[in-house]
Amino acid sequence: MKRLVGLIAVALILQGSALYGQNAVIRFDKDRATGEIDRNIYGVFMEPIGRGNYNIVYGPLYDPSSPLANADGFRTDVIDAMRELKIPNMRWPGGNYISNYNWQDGIGPKEQRPVRIDPAWGGRDTNHVGTDEWVALNRAIGSENVVCLNLAFGDVDQTRFWLEYCNLPTGSYYADLRAKYGHPEPYGIKYWCLGNEVDGKPWIMGHLDAVDYTKKAYEVAKLLRALDKDVKFVASGSSWYENSPNGTTPRGAWIDWNHTIVKELYGMADYISIHRYWEYSAGDYYQRMADNVMDVEEKILVTKSLIDIEKVNYPAKRPMYISFDEWGANGQGGWMKALGDAQYLNAFVRHSDVVKMANYTMMTSLLTTDRASGRNYKGPFFQIYKLYSNNVQGSTIDSYVQCETFDGEVYKDVPYLNVTCVYSPETGEVLINVINVNKDKAITADIEAVSGSYDRKAEVRTIARALDETFSIANEKDYEPKITTENVKDGRLTHTFPAASFTQISLTVK
Question: Rounded to an integer, what distance in angstroms lies between the CA atom of residue 452 and that of residue 425?
């Protein structure tokens, strides 16, 4: 991995050095945009994962017996929270679940839908949440549908009939069936995933090698686009990495997989997916912070390089971007997970030139459930997510960071301050997102504009919690950001970032 450290450090625009006794430095240049932020990076993912008597969808999200249920059976507390976050899209229904799923089981009268065994997760699936229900949920949230197709055990007819059911006007069999079931107007679903984690041989049902997958994916995409020219496709990129618990492949196999996907589907697929959770779960706090955060950077940068090759070779073809459509600092808990998840969001913003969609796993995990009452509440990460999804828009701009660094087991000299800077020409506002991962020490930084000048006042929004804190519904209001106003002196803002904190600074730049 050391061969990538230099490249990653440059892309992070985080140049660390030992600044003993000195302030850290953050500089930004509003005239040097590096990418336009797509709001689709604030998407979510839901999958009916069931283990024993518990299911992530049935109960936490879909519960017609709940006093909180709307007319479609979905919990309004979840819907209202997602509307507050301005969630732009939801990926469904899988996940590993999709490899054994036949969408036709999930339409029509619910009492007539077949109960199926789910080989991916275990348990039985009533199919009460099917296509029409997922669409209704997205409409309630105000988000777009991102439908994952079964390219494992599913055949081509399943895919084209599903698109016909969803997108075509009445006058054909499946479009008329949609109308029969109460939905005469087409849904107009734009985003379709060409399978899920097809490279994951140890766990996925219906694994294909890269060559067989791209042949099938290309033909499915070609067929569906013939039926609806406006659809966009997400190709199944890497999900199986060497340090995963199930991973046994040689180093670099994930790069070979992505290379084949990009090469064979460039011009047909609009995105290549990346799935990456925190897999470096051993070691101390700093090892996990360094290795997992830089690992995500590696996955983005290497895949971007593969896309750039095809862009040079075929400049006239439709471009391809990255959809990071499953992510999360899994294996962690409490405030450490929130800090890890915040650094994913910073990575998507930092690489806004290529990361154009992302989906957090799972949507319902953006809320925290009080075990005693069963009520949902808004924990610290909900508040961080809201600061991004509500505020961070416009263009990512060039920035420079100089601060002390720390080491992981794999990656060395990782800056304590993980920073992104964003500029909105419409409002003249620069937003600076800073995660201080130093768990023991506050870091003071001088913040300067390379071009232009900024107003005398800055609004600072801070969320800082203890790493060993247990969150509770009683403290829900305390998790909201603390908002302060700070003075700018001589064109410089000097701010101290608390230990283990997230901070968003708003400046008006002239």
Answer: 13
Please count the helices (runs of H) and the strands (runs of E) in the chain. Answer: 10, 25
> pLDDT above 70 covers what percent of the chain?
94
Distance CA 444, CA 22 (A): 9
Question: Are the C-beta atoms of residues 228 and 190 closer than 8 Å to each other?
Answer: no
pTM: 0.94
| Parent domain of 477 | 2-36+396-508
Q: Please say whether the beta carbons of 88 and 141 come within 8 A.
A: no
Beginning with the edge strand found earlier in the chain, give each strand of the sheet holding 443-449 in spatial order.
482-487, 457-464, 501-508, 429-436, 417-424, 395-402, 24-36, 443-449, 492-497
Shared domain for 162 and 50, answered yes or no, is yes
Say whether both 179 and 79 belong to one domain.
yes
Distance from C-alpha of 392 to C-alpha of 411, rounded to nearest angstrom:
28
- State in Å, rounded, how far the first CA of the chain is from the last one: 42
CATH code assigned at 19: 2.60.40.1180
How far is residue 145's CA from residue 286's CA, in Å, rounded to a whole number? 38
Q: Which secondary-structure segment (H or E) carries 358?
A: strand 355-361
258 sits in which H/E element? helix 253-265
Q: What is the pLDDT of residues 346-356, one digit of tens each?
A: 999 999 999 99
C-beta separation of 388 from 345 below 8 A: yes
The per-residue pLDDT for range 274-330, each reduced to its tens digit, is 999 998 887 899 999 999 999 999 999 999 999 999 999 999 999 999 999 999 999
Instruction: List Cβ neighbours of 417 (8 Å cut-off, separation of 6 or more).
Output: 14, 24, 26, 401, 403, 434, 435, 436, 437, 443, 445, 497
